[in-house]
Every structure is written in C-alpha cells, then in structure tokens.
Write a structure and sequence with these properties.
The protein is α/β, with parallel strands linked by helices and 269 residues long. 47% of the residues lie in helices and 16% in strands. A 7-stranded mixed sheet has the order 3-2-1-4-5-7-6. Helix 11 runs antiparallel to helix 12. The longest helix has 24 residues. It is globular, with a radius of gyration of 17 Å.
Length: 269
C-alpha cells in the first residue's frame, strides 16, 4: 500500500468479507473475498476480535448503500464519485450510476488485477492519485459537472486534518457545485469511550485520527451544506442483525452511543 491510511482499507475490506460469510450478513458484499490476500489476512488478524466495531463497519457500508441506491433508483445515470475508494465494490453491486473510484495508484492497480472494471454492472472508471503529491482539483477537473453528483467519503475523514477536510470540500464545490456527500462522522467523545482499542491498533499502523471534535458535522454546515439525513451506525447495526431490544435500548437510553458515530448525507446546492 502507498500510505498508512490506505492500509486501513484492508481492515474495512476484511470486515465486509467476514460479514458476507455470516448466515445473516449486514451488508452482503460478495465481492470482498476477492481481495483477501495474505496482507489482508494479516491485518484482519489484528482486528477480528473487535466484534462491535467490525459489525459497525459492515453496517455503515450498508447504510450508505441504501442511501445511494435510493438516489440511483430516481436517477440511474447520475455520477457517483468514491473518494478514497479502497476496496469499494458498489459499482458491481448497486443498480445504476456512472462510477468514478479515486485512490492511490497501488490500491487501484491491485483492484484492476482482482476485480477488473469490465466486470462492473455499471460504467466504472478508476482515477489514480498520489494524495500527498498531486492536486485533487486537477485530477477531478476533467469530470467537472454542474449536475447533481453523489460523493462517497467513507472511512476517510477521521484520518484527515481539519485543513485537509476543508480543502477537500472546497474542491468538491469547485468541481461539482451541486453535490451530495455521504460520509461517516465520529465524535471525539465516542472515539475516546468506545473506539479507543480499535484506534490504538490503527495508530500502530500509522493511521491515527486527527482533529476530532464533538461536532464533526459543523464543518459541513459552515461550508453551506444542508443535512439531508443522519443515521446512527450502532443502532442500525443492531437493527440489521435483528436485535430489536438492543437497538431500542441504544436509541432510547444511550445517546452517547446512538449519536457518537453516524452516517451523514449532506447536500450542497
């Protein structure tokens, strides 16, 4: 992998691969197993016992799947951009969309070898970028479009500094002035209380969370985005697993858990 953050793609991949093997998967990413090589299995060995965090990874993926699919059912020819795509396979699983996956050259080369774009059920392009050395605005410029564009930023923002997040949103506004962002946002208090052990392993891989706050959504509101929806990852994970009582308890009596890690859908018009 080209950088430490890219290595975390193996963790989220392994969560989905493990989920797909369950009798009742939360997400059901049947393509994830294609990428489970020795490096992926080594990473998974460090995380496989974090049951709740791993379930949350699968659940957050499903939440975004459902939100994007709802949009594509209305507009099947809409552009969908996956920033920091990792081993995302939505272009192969969802119905509709003109897909653009953006990530480091090493990870996209690996994806091309194990899951070629020719197998995707929807039009798919892969755009390699060295995030540390190349301009995201310049890379995305050929795709500039004033139409409604859907942008997935999953498992990425917590590793970026506040300045980097602001720069990314500025690029989106420049290239896709009418866009919808789907992202996961975690409160600093949730990370300290409920995600500390997982974060310690991530940090040992060189991928530490940065500039965490208890109002991560504020950045989007400051940059002119409106909240279209907000979904609790822990609650949805319990619901998808058919655990109605734990889901009710989280929703009703544990607001710090309920609200600490959520999938947000923001719209910029």
């Amino acid at each position: 992998m080209a950088n430490a953050i890219s290595k975390t793609a193996y963790y989220t991949l392994a969560c989905r691969a493990a989920d797909a093997r369950k009798p009742r998967p939360l997400c059901g990413d049947s393509f994830a197993s294609r990428f489970m090589d020795d490096e992926a299995r080594q990473v998974w060995a460090r995380f496989q016992y974090f049951d709740r965090a791993n379930e949350s990874n699968a659940a957050r993926h499903q939440i975004i799947d459902a939100l994007v699919q709802e949009e594509l059912d209305r507009a099947p020819d809409a552009r969908v951009v996956v920033l920091g795509a990792g081993f995302d396979t939505r272009a192969y699983r969802l119905r509709g969309g003109l897909w653009l996956e953006v990530d480091e050259p090493a990870i996209l080369t690996l994806k091309d070898a194990k899951l070629p774009v020719t197998e995707a059920k929807n039009p798919l392009e892969r755009l390699p970028i060295d995030f540390a050395a190349e301009s995201l605005a310049a890379k995305l410029a050929p795709y500039q479009d004033s139409r409604r564009t859907h942008v997935i930023i999953e498992g990425v923002l917590m590793y970026l500094s506040d300045a980097q997040r602001r720069d990314m949103l500025a690029v989106l506004q420049q290239v896709f002035p009418h866009h919808v962002v789907y992202c996961d946002l975690m409160r600093a208090s949730f990370q300290r209380e409920y995600s500390r052990d997982v974060h310690a392993v991530l940090a040992s891989m060189g991928a530490s969370f940065q500039d965490m706050t208890d109002a991560p959504e504020a950045l989007f509101l400051e940059t002119g985005h409106a909240v279209a929806s907000s979904t609790s990852v822990p609650v949805r994970a319990q619901e998808l697993a058919g655990k109605r009582v734990p889901a009710f308890i989280l929703r009703r009596f544990m607001p710090a858990v309920r609200d600490g890690y959520r999938i947000w859908k923001f719209e910029r018009t």
